[in-house]
Design a protein that fits this description.
With 262 residues, the protein is of the alpha/beta class. The chain has helices at residues 33-47, 70-75, 79-98, 114-121, 145-151, 157-166, 172-178, 190-202, 206-219, 224-239, 242-252; strands at 9-14, 17-22, 54-59, 103-107, 110-112, 124-128, 132-134, 170-171, 183-185. The chain has eleven helices and nine strands. The strands form two sheets. A six-stranded mixed sheet has the order 1-2-3-4-6-9, with helices on both faces. A three-stranded mixed sheet has the order 5-7-8.
């Protein structure tokens, strides 16, 4: 809850798609401690929910997420307070990456600082054509060091440094060119595009998606030979799964597969 006595996070489930909506519109969905806690707790529940196949992360009101709640941060200054805050944010971002289900960011309006970090952390991102992105901390004397972690793992080095050092707004087409988002669509088609992507994922084997998502992030920072060795072991385990046998047999027999998640 926040000052409006409304939940800071909303959840809606439909057909295997879990929609989580950041619900602090008057604060441009800034990541307060309460909102981050609510997100952490909901992700933990989704992790154990076999009916949840894909997560869509959205924002209420005119913004997706304007980063950390600066008023809340300044209301409780001090090293220990800041250490707890950024440790919590780091846990949240890593929880999204570690979630077995794919996470799609539905981005409208602004996504700045930790909000931009949130977009970069999600597995996929679809943006409205008017959405804007920035890591503007440098403009207020606070370099976006934690957003930099996710940003620099999504976009090229020069593009990341451009965003971090200049602190300027980047429009949606540029964000797509940088590699920060997957697709940019007219606002009226945003939900349609996100729904289409989510439903496509729902049609896949949940076990295969879980194995693949985990493997993707684990191999990223390994040397090439080590990454191939690790990925080869994952492929073997995947091939031994019932869903892989079913998928291959269905392909050979020209029929739709029936997934069991095993």
């Amino acid at each position: 809850m926040d000052g409006r006595n409304e939940p800071v996070l909303l959840r809606e489930d439909e057909g295997g798609v879990v929609r989580l909506t950041l619900n602090r519109p008057q604060a441009r969905n800034a990541l307060s401690r309460g909102l981050m806690t609510a997100l952490e707790e909901e992700l933990a529940r989704i992790r154990e929910d076999r009916s949840a196949r894909v997560v869509v992360l959205a924002g209420a009101g005119p913004a997706f997420c304007a980063g950390h709640d600066l008023r809340e941060m300044r209301a409780e200054p001090g090293r220990s307070s800041y250490e707890r805050l950024f440790a919590q944010c780091s846990r949240l971002m890593q929880a999204i990456t570690a979630l077995p289900q794919p996470v799609i960011a539905r981005v409208h309006g602004v996504a700045t600082a930790a909000g931009c970090q949130l977009v970069a952390t999600c597995d996929l991102a679809v943006a409205a054509d008017y959405a804007t992105f920035a890591t503007p901390g440098v403009n207020i004397g606070l370099f976006c060091s934690t957003p930099m972690v996710a940003l620099s793992r999504n976009v090229g080095r020069k593009q990341a440094m451009e965003m971090l050092l200049l602190g300027e707004m980047v429009d949606a087409p540029t964000a797509r060119r940088f590699g920060l988002v997957n697709r940019v669509v007219p606002t009226k088609h945003l939900d349609e595009e996100v729904d289409k992507m989510a439903k496509t994922i729902v049609g896949k084997s949940p076990l295969t998606l879980k194995l693949g998502k985990e493997a993707f992030y684990r191999q990223l920072d390994r040397p090439v030979a080590e990454a191939y060795d690790y990925a080869g072991r994952v492929m073997v385990e995947n091939m031994l799964a019932r869903d892989a046998e079913e998928g291959i047999d269905a392909f050979i027999q020209k029929r739709a597969p029936v997934w069991t998640g095993t």
